[in-house]
Amino acid sequence: MLLEIVVASDCPGCDEARAIAEEIRSRFPDVGVDLLEVGRGRPMPATVFATPTYLLDGVVAWLGNPSRQQLAELISARLAAKPARSQGRER
């Protein structure tokens, strides 16, 4: 699972988004977390029109900052829904 958070240097809510990214990294070590800094020549992804924007596996999950609890619940639900990998050998 990959959480991408699109931020910009002139975005008032993006400092909070950066803090949320750090919390998610420590709370969910199996989830990739990427901060995408836009501006200064780096364009926004095609599906994004404002910062901060949260993309989960490439799909917009939030515009603006979610509560930490909401984001953690969404990630937990997605992780629980993923099929478990087979532990044994196929025959």
Notable characteristics:
4-stranded mixed sheet; 31% helix; 25% strand; globular; alpha+beta; 91 residues; Glutaredoxin; 4 strands
Q: Overview of this structure, please?
A:
The chain has 91 residues and is an alpha+beta fold. The protein has a single domain (2-81), classed as 3-Layer(aba) Sandwich (Glutaredoxin), CATH 3.40.30. It is built from 2 helices and 4 strands; from the N terminus they run E-H-E-E-E-H. It has helices at 14-27, 68-81, and strands spanning 2-8, 32-38, 53-56, 59-63. A hairpin with a 2-residue loop joins strand 3 (53-56) and strand 4. It is globular, with a radius of gyration of 15 Å.
Going by helix content, strand content and strand pairing, the class is alpha+beta
CATH topology term: Glutaredoxin
Spans with pLDDT under 50 lasting ≥5 residues?
86-91
Radius of gyration: 15 Å
CATH superfamily: Glutaredoxin
